[in-house]
Amino acid sequence: MGFLAPISFLFFGAIPILLLFYFFKKQYDRQTISSIYLWEGTLREWESDRWWHKLQRNLLLLLQLLILLLLILALARPFFVGEEVNGDHLVIVIDSSATMTAEENGTTRFTKAKQQAVQLIDQLGNGHKVSVIHAQEAPVLLATNQTNHSEVIEQIKELQISYQHQNVTDSIRLAQSLIQHEQGEIHIFTDDLDEESVTALNISIPVVVRNMSASKENISIQTFGVKRSENLVQAIVTVKNESSDAIDIVLSISNDENELEQVTEGVAANEQKTINVKNLPIHDYYQVKLVGDDAYNLDNVMHALLPKQEAPSIYLAGDVNPFIEKAILSAGIKVTTVPTDDSGNYSFPEEEEAVYLLSGVENKHWPPGAKLIISPSSGGPFQVGEKVQLNYPLKEASDHPVLAFSDFENVYLEQAYQVDNWQGLQPLVKSEDQIIIAKGMFENDPMILLAFDLFDSDWPLQPGFPILLVNSIADLAGDGESLGYYHPLETATIQLSTMTEGAVIEELNGDDLKDIHLSESDLTVPRHPGIYQLHEKSANGSSFRYLVVQLDNVERTATSINSFSVDVEGQEESGTQLAKKEVWRIFASLALLLLFLEWEVYRRGISSR
Description:
- The chain is α+β, with helices and mostly antiparallel strands.
- The strands form nine sheets. Strands 18-17-19-20-26-25-24-22 form an eight-stranded mixed sheet. Strands 7-6-3-8-9-34 form a six-stranded mixed sheet, with helices on both faces. A five-stranded mixed sheet has the order 27-33-32-29-30, with no helix packed on it.
- Helix 8 (322-330) links the parallel strand 17 and strand 18.
- Helix 3 (50-75) packs antiparallel against helix 10, helix 4 packs antiparallel against helix 5 (149-157) and helix 8 packs across helix 9 (464-477).
């Protein structure tokens, strides 16, 4: 315990003055009287209650001394020191991503984060400023320079899981802008933020990162896709064992709560495994679920939509890597290889719905239609140059469905082609500033361009390789009749029928979630991961289209690392300690209570005379 106003202890000099008052208290002399007849009743009462009068002689003095002592302590403003936070401004950043629902001992990371944030604010002194940032995909500022701590605490308690991937980088930059030239600290409550990511931002303010932990005994479903093959459906599921022991996992594939298939597979510790399930009946959508609970249940379920359209014709031309053909065939997609004639020309069939996969083919031989270009030839409209060495790992440059379930951080790529003119294609994957994969329209046809050679990468050995190829083909061929896949709270563009009189997003059981205004083309999809349906109502009846809300890829693994702090060299410490919790009100309240008690003692003493 410390004291903010120790000079108040000079008031201890009043204690001798109080004692002097008792020394000069009026004394009574003994007198001889003729009769005590009228005093007999009072004397008997006094004799029966003698202990109280004996105690009263000194009790008033003791109570007054104690009251004086408590008042002096209250004036000295005592406090307890909790966790030290330097400065006069505290900025709290709270992560509400899906992985914050992971549990340990029955408590989620998100609950622990909010509890610790509230405890930190409770330790602050009066008048100290607090700001709170909700680290969603787009950071939300909940409180700015607030000195009303109880109001800030209520806002934190009301926070809910957003299920979006946290944007800690922009949240930290926003936090730094709030403090600016003041003295303060940033406290981040999350689960997997590493020190390297924080130091790379060159923050000029001390940062404390509190990574919430959870049980490491977790099994997750990483990918799930379905593909129609004639009159049956094949499902591909990738599961990951994040625990330290090998385990037998049980997968249940169902439709509308009707189990279609159940499989059991062994997965080694800290390994992932791809499981093929064949001969499933045809349905509009499917659900795969891990049987049983673990520390993180959100990654135990995934949904997949079966495209309504017929599979497009896939034509391969050029020096196509054999891994590509095998990956496409493993997904149940038939391919046709187009050879060259004696003149070196390709005879592509004229099909409106075809997708052409071209490798090393000059642009003058490109057919009209959707194209997936791998290992582009030199020159051409994209001005493809020589290969250059890559010094940085691959990272997603766009949150596009084509990249769903493809973990590029684990992909090694030694070199890639230098492309000087991307013709307006949008980057999907980069290595630092160099674009590796891009997508868009070229000459009125959809195109995806992979500016590297597969022989320079271990990507074909990754589980996400065939998935990206299938996603690319599906994107180039069109979306079909479903609305597709979205992340929580993502904005989706929809086209309603001109005959539609009313539209609503609802759960599969028919419960309404959100009404759609017919004049709006954009809507925000639901927050919670799952499968939903767009219900359009018209004079001709109702029509339904499914949409899947799924977690971001990085939210499918509930990792946790140690907490840490990043100090700023040369920063002067503020003279104020934010963690001083004053308790003078307690001493003042006790003094007031004793004052009432003293009055009662004095009153009883007067009435008993």
